[in-house]
UniProtKB/TrEMBL annotation:
Classification via PROSITE patterns: THIOREDOXIN_2 (PS51352)
A Pfam short name: Thioredoxin_8
Domain Thioredoxin, chain residue ranges per copy: 300-442
Keyword rRNA-binding: no
Keyword annotations: Signal
Gene3D superfamilies cross-referenced by the UniProt entry: Glutaredoxin (3.40.30.10)
Transmembrane segments: none
Signal peptide span: 1-18
Coiled-coil regions, chain positions: none
Protein name according to UniProt: TlpA family protein disulfide reductase
CDD domains in the cross-refs: TlpA_like_family
Organism, as annotated: Aequorivita xiaoshiensis
Length: 442
């Protein structure tokens, strides 16, 4: 009996460990209800498990069935804005605290090492780039910052020796010269050696957010140094680094990079990436959804001619967008009588157009409707617009053609129906209208 009790005492820490492979404390506790765990893979994320967060803000998860790798914890909606990544070595429990706006603070050994290393290195790199891009860089200050980089790297490598996290610490090691001579030489050598410590063929690195992180960092840093017009050569450099890795991983990574460029409004760079590399990868792998997404974005970028569509006016006459020739500029406004925000904004836009010569700027208002009657009643009050009704399948089709994800959505076109503006919101739209009106008066 005594032996059994002793055995239970010895094993009890093991049982407790298995029960809670991840523990976390969220604050304020009333703002967090659930958590979803995803495993990161070379081609995206895979659902692992989910759980409720306790009323006290405490999270517990069992990782018994999970293997070593990188994971993503979603703690609120929308998922793309409310998550953090971490590593799990298959043995050590993961622990953290989370509060807003501080974010996540890890207390387990390996994630603490990694996140402190990344934060410290990022701060020094920011200071270093600030000094180097100043009018007259101070050589002494630059060398001091470079020594700090060496100290941070050595400290993290020593602390992580013979552990899973060492892979990520070594892969993220920046270029640090043995001796600093001048700014031009430093950036030239850094550009050449930027990816020298990162293995895009490593499965664990592929299954993390670090590949995207490092190519974004390269693009942003050397866009700043060389200028935004060098986006083509920088994208070529990035593809050269990843081209020998698995093709599915390439497609996933470059699609994420493309989306990052889109989100940052770098449309020319996004289209160059798609035209020269990403579309070919998507085509070779039969990814029709991605191909459509890339084509749609390109077709709705500044300078592109928008898709044509037709409608019948109140007299039954057939019209098309391309054949409409009543003004020098056009505003395509996608709206709905079911949309409260539209019902506030469209009358204001109608009033705005009272002061604009309709031969200069004309609004074509496309109603995305479920029924005719509410739209008919509303359009009777909006007399300064050309009205187009889209219902059912026609509504779905034009929504896809113009990538309308919310209403109102605006496109400003020239007389050839090429996009010259995609304002976000009515204030931005009015700014473009005022600019065009002032330009035409000169």
């Amino acid at each position: 009996m005594i032996k059994k009790i002793l055995l239970l005492v010895l094993l009890s820490p093991f049982f407790l460990y298995c029960q809670d492979s991840m523990t976390g404390q969220f604050s304020p506790k009333e703002d967090f209800d659930f958590a979803i765990l995803y495993r990161l893979t070379p081609t995206g994320r895979v659902y692992a498990q989910d759980t409720k967060i306790g009323n006290d803000g405490r999270l517990k998860m069992n990782f018994d069935s999970l293997s070593k790798g990188s994971y993503r914890l979603v703690y609120n909606l929308p998922e793309e804005n409310n998550y953090f990544d971490f590593i799990y070595d298959g043995n050590e429990a993961v622990s953290f605290t989370f509060s807003e706006p501080t974010g996540v603070v890890f207390t387990d050994t390996q994630n603490k090492i990694l996140n402190e290393y990344l934060k410290e290195m990022e701060a020094v790199e920011k200071a270093l780039n600030s000094e180097l891009t100043s009018e007259s860089p101070n050589t002494t200050d630059v060398k001091t910052l470079l020594r700090k980089q060496i100290d941070i790297q050595n400290k993290a490598e020593n602390e992580s020796k013979n552990t899973f996290v060492s892979l990520f610490v070594k892969a993220n090691k920046p270029y640090i010269p043995n001796d600093f001579k001048n700014r031009s030489l430093y950036y030239g050598e850094k550009k050449t050696n930027f990816f020298s410590n990162f293995d895009f063929g490593d499965m664990q690195l592929q299954s993390s957010s670090f590949p995207l992180r490092i190519i974004e960092k390269y693009y942003e840093e050397f866009t700043l140094i060389q200028g935004s017009t060098f986006y083509r050569s920088l994208i070529n450099d990035i593809y050269f680094e990843v081209k020998n890795s698995d093709s599915e991983f390439q497609k996933t990574l470059l699609a994420e990079f493309w989306q990052s460029l889109v989100n940052k409004n770098k449309k020319n760079a996004a289209n160059y990436l798609a035209d020269n590399y990403l579309t070919d990868l998507a085509t070779s792998q039969g990814d029709a959804v991605l191909i459509k997404k890339l084509d749609l974005f390109k077709n709705l970028s500044i300078g592109a001619k928008v898709p044509n569509f037709s409608w019948k006016d109140k007299n039954g006459n057939e019209n098309t967008l391309y054949n409409t020739d009543v003004a020098e500029y056009y505003v395509l406004a996608f709206w709905s009588s079911d949309c409260p925000y539209c019902m506030e904004n469209m009358p204001v836009l109608n009033e705005k157009m009272n002061a604009i010569n309709s031969n200069k700027i004309k609004v074509i208002a496309v109603g995305l409707e479920m029924e005719d009657e509410p739209w008919k009643q509303t359009t009777e009050q909006l007399t300064n617009f050309i009205h187009v009704l889209r219902k059912n399948e026609d509504r779905a089709a034009i929504t896809l053609d113009y990538n309308v994800t919310g209403t109102p959505t605006y496109f400003v076109l020239d007389k050839d129906k090429k996009i010259i503006g995609t304002p976000q919101g009515q204030n931005a739209l009015f700014g473009i209208i005022d600019t065009l009106e002032a330009y035409k008066k000169q």
